[in-house]
Amino acid sequence: MSKPTRDILLLENIHEEAEPAFKKAGLKVRRTGGTLDETELIEAIGDSTMIGIRSRSQMTEKVINSVPNLEAIACFCIGTNQVDLDAAARRGIAVFNSPFCNTRSVAEMTIAEIIGLHRGLFDKNSAMHQGRWDKSATNSHEVRGRVIGIVGYGHIGSQVSVLAEALGMRVVYHDIVPKMAMGNAIPAGSLDELLAESDVVTLHVPETPDTKNMIDARALKRMKSGSMLINNSRGSVVDIDALAEAIKSEHVMGVALDVYPSEPRARQDDFTCPLSGLPGVVMTPHIGGSTEEAQIAIAREVSMKMVTYQQRGTTTSSVNIPEVELPHRRDGQDRILHFHRNVPGVLSKMHGILAEGHVNIHAEYLQSTGDLSYVILDVDHLQDGSVIDQFRNMDETIRLRWLS
Ligand code: NAI
């Protein structure tokens, strides 16, 4: 195996705010523009120990198995399905992401859409651009006093709750997990109750088998006549054909969609949707979380996670390997970070090797998930690499790092 290069390769124009943390930690930052195919990616990674990507670089099993020195993958985005997480775990490669840094961005866009739909801003704007002066108060409302129904009261839903209440809206919410109400928000008895009493329903649930077509023809009928629907969560949550019918029949009077059952892969690709051209519908290209502020927050959060992993071995919030929160290494002690197959007898082998070498253990941490175990040993300062060599030669060893 070639000698690892302690650097990070950043792809896909990751925000420059990622760099200070790496540089402060003494890591060299390399950048390559554009999206690389499998072969180019393997070549570009070379002997690097870390890579930072966004959503377009595909870290396939082949890539992962072709770069023996890679220790960690940073996804400077929300999703991680561009990475073969199991293949990475099998090689003891940690994957980190930033699931919640764009919460506020989505919440603000939701509020903007609620106000815009209540005032017919989007249709009025289109009319003006077509030379029509449609000055009228018909179907134009203040949001103050209106009822907002929030489905999914997690990070985004609860932020929307706070902002909506500040505008004087009455907030009801529904979640499958009991959630503490923000401000004066009230939990609805059920999803059906929420649908029946809300002037505007906004969806903030994840994509799960339970949420697939959660808003279907039946649910749409439950909504108040003339009410509005916002989906800035996942495209699978709404039956879009049923929604198109509900708009055509004027049962639903305003819709804002940021996500779709099928979304174009690239910027230039064509987009079609049963809602195209319908009145009272505003559509955006999955940009709810896309703000400069979110990009900066993601860059800072993910780079910090990578540096903490590099310097300490902490894997907290990794999406694919056992999570262990570790303190700083004490002066005069070495730290051994050991990924191994989760089978009986590994710890006793390690203890035996250390005892034979007269090396004292000061602290020990262990966490396992599935087939993978991660053990961290803080030990006496090692005079040479003989203990490390023995650990490396154990059949069960997947990856080992020695911090001295
Ligand atoms: P979160 O995990 O913090 O909150 C989701 C909430 O939904 C949780 O409280 C959960 O208990 C609840 N939930 C799950 N299944 C439910 C069900 N069947 N019925 C009712 N509640 C249910 O997630 P977060 O960060 O608030 O994100 C919400 C959604 O927004 C996700 O789908 C996420 O992918 C999407 N999102 C969209 C973005 C965009 O650009 N449009 C950007 C960021 C997130």
The string of secondary-structure elements, in order, is EHEHEHEHEHHEHEEHEHEHEEHEHEEHE
Distance between the termini: 21 Å
Parts with pLDDT < 50 across at least 5 consecutive residues:
none
Label the overall shape: elongated
CATH class of the largest domain: Alpha Beta
- CATH architecture heading of the largest domain: 3-Layer(aba) Sandwich
Q: Which cofactors or ions or other ligands sit in this model?
A: 1,4-dihydronicotinamide adenine dinucleotide
- Using DSSP, what is the number of strands? 16
Using only CA atoms, what is the Rg? 26 Å
Give me the CATH superfamily of the largest domain: NAD(P)-binding Rossmann-like Domain
Q: How many helix segments?
A: 13
Strand order of the largest sheet: 8-7-6-9-10-11-12
Average of per-residue pLDDT values:
95
CATH topology of the largest domain: Rossmann fold
Q: Helix/strand/pairing class, anyone?
A: alpha/beta
Strand residue percentage: 15-25%
The level of helicity is 25-40%
Major sheet size, sense and barrel closure: 7 strands, parallel
Number of domains: 3
Please name the defining characteristics of this protein.
3 domains; Alpha-Beta Plaits; elongated; 404 residues; Rossmann fold; binds 1,4-dihydronicotinamide adenine dinucleotide; alpha/beta; seven-stranded parallel beta sheet
